[in-house]
Design brief:
It contains five helices and 13 strands. The strands form three sheets. The chain has a six-stranded mixed beta sheet with strand order 1-3-4-5-6-8. The protein has a five-stranded mixed beta sheet with strand order 10-9-11-12-13, with helices on one face. Strand 11 and strand 12 form a beta hairpin. The longest helix is centred in the C-terminal third of the chain and has 31 residues. The N terminus is likely disordered. By secondary structure, it is α+β, with helices and mostly antiparallel strands.
Amino acid sequence: MGLFTGGGDQQLSAQVPQSGQMVRKSVAFTTPVFGAPDKISKQLEAAVVAETERLLVPVVKTAGVKADYVVRGYVVAAPGTAGTELSYIWDVLDGTDKRVHRITGKRVIAGAAQRDPWALVSAAELQAVATQTATDLAAFIPATQAPAPVAPASTAPAIAQTGAGQPALAQAQPTPLAPQAAAASQTAQPQQAVVRAAPQPAASTAQPIVAIVPPVTGAPGDGNNSLAGALQRHLAKKGIRTTASGGGEFYTVKGSVQMGPPTAGNQAIRIEWAVLDPSGKHVRTVVQRNTVPQGALNQAWGATAEGAAETAVPSIISIIQQRQQAQAGRTTNG
C-alpha cells in the first residue's frame, strides 16, 4: 500500500514557518481506498487530497518524505431501499502506527435500484465525502502558532552572558512513519437528494439480533477465517450477537472472495457479504472491490480483514434492520 501521489514535491510541509504564522502537522494518505472500484478510488483520492490542502493541512505526496500522521480509508456502497448507501471510514495513525482518530460517515444516495450500487455514486457524491473528510481532519489537526526562531548568537549577548538555555527550535521535527506494507490494506452537493449521518448501531428490538457468520469462502491465505472473525467482532461491537452456526431463527451473513487474474503485477479483489433472513431467503448483498499487488493477500490478511469487515458492518446492519421493519409491518397489517 502506497501513498497518494499528486505530482511534484510537497513543499508546504518542508517550509520553515515564520514567527507567529499558523501551522498544522502534516498528513499522508495511503492508497488505494479499500472497498471501491479502481476508478472511483482514484477519484476519491484526488478529491480528498485537494480538499485537505485547501484547508491548509500539509499533505506529503513524495516517496521518502515522512508525515506526522498517515490516513487510511475504507468505503463501501450497498443497495438500499431508496438507492445506494455509501459508508466510509478514515483511520488517522500516528508515528507508532497507533490509531489516534477516526472519521466516519454515511450518505444515502437517492435513485432507482441498480444491480451495481456504485452506479449511483457520482463525482458530486465523492466530492461531498472528500469535503466532509477534510473538514473533520482539519478539526482534528488544529492550527498552532509557530514559535519565534532561534536568535543568532551575535544578537543575543544576554543569553550568552547569563548561560540561559537555548530557545526552542522554530519547528519540531515530526516522528518518522514508514508507509504501510501492501498487505496491510487492500474504501456541487445535492443537499435535497442525500442524507449524511454517522453509521448507527443496531436498533433495540424485543429479541436481540443474532447473526450466523460462517467461514468465508474463496479467500487466499488466512482470509477465510480472518474475514469471518473480523466480521463477528465488529458486529458484536454494534450489539449484534454472532455465532458460527445455528438454526433457522437467525440471520446469516455469508462472505465470499473472488480474486481476479494477475494483471501488470496487480490483482482485482471482490468481497461479497450476502445477508439471508431467518427463513434462508436472500435479502441483499454488500459488495466491496479493490485492486491489490499480486500475491499481497496470499498469507496473513491482518488489517485488511479488519478494515473490510468494519466498513461492511453498517450496511449489513442496515439491511437486517430494514428487513425486520418490513416483516413487522407485514405482521401488523396481516
